[in-house]
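FYI - complex with phenylalanine, inputs then prediction.
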Amino acid sequence: MKERISKYLQEVENFKGESLEQLEDFRIRFMSKKGLIPALFADFRNVPNEEKKEVGQQINMLKNAILEKMSSLKDKLTSSDEKTRDTIDLTLPVDSQVGTRHPLSIVRNEIIDIFSRIGFSVSEGPEIEDDFHNFTALNFPPNHPARDTQDTFFIETDPDILLRTHTSSVQIRVMQNSKPPIRTLLPGRVFRNEAISARAHCIFHQVEGLAVDTDISFADLKHTLYYFAKEMFDKETKVRFRPSYFPFTEPSAEMDISCNICGGKGCNICKYTGWVEILGCGMVDPNVFDNCGIDNQKYTGYAFGMGIERITMLKYQINDLRLFFENDIRFLKQFESL
Ligand code: PHE
């Protein structure tokens, strides 16, 4: 018994304990329920009476040595942990990937910035819409073929609920909920059931604009878009309007800009015409005002809508729309500094 105790005592004195894990193993070896100290106390019963006093003192001494060792090692190990923490240099440059904005976000922000300089706010609405806001209020009569021009994703169980095909639905929400004067942008994600190709996708992004006030004319619309084209592309950019049709605007137009790739000389981007279409626009149809409770005798307004993908492709000369949705780091990294 005495030999065992002195062997353990030796072991305790020699124990270095270089980590908290080693210290825990040490505690388990000696002090846990099935450890060596409880075993010693259990065997103590068999010690002859005349030796009990001496052996008892030795066991207690061993136990105290263990407790002392554990507490001093614990102090040492935890404080050295703190010391290493103090020596971490937080000012060292980090070797990691820098996050970048997606090119579509960069261009959306730029569009918003350009129009906010002339007083436009930003309004947003839901991506899951009802027929009224996406079509009916925008002067698409029921069963009218114009609905077919926007290949709509319907929610199967309820033909009244659909994924919005354009952010014009938000024009309706804004007009229902506020009074003129209105001057706001409507950016957002839209959905059309189209085959995915280099030029089309079933998800894309639009920014529309809406201005409603007394005395708003087509000249205001033209000049606003003229300003936009020069800010977005460059000062030399030319603009032209072609008559078009949308159920919710009358008259309607599409706007082209001079091709910024070839400078108007003709290339495969502009299909050798020197012009590229960038948006649809027009004067808000009086029926639309009616549907939103705005007095169409007192107010006039204009609206326009553009695809962010298209503007981004022209601005950065990207020739495949699918690149925006693949999140290929080699593509995204090129926009790091913007
Ligand atoms: N909503 C139309 C589209 O998605 C664009 C547009 C908006 C046209 C506003 C005219 C006025 O094609």
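The longest strand covers residues 203-213. Strands lie at 121-122, 128-130, 154-155, 158-163, 182-191, 203-213, 239-246, 249-258, 275-284, 300-307.
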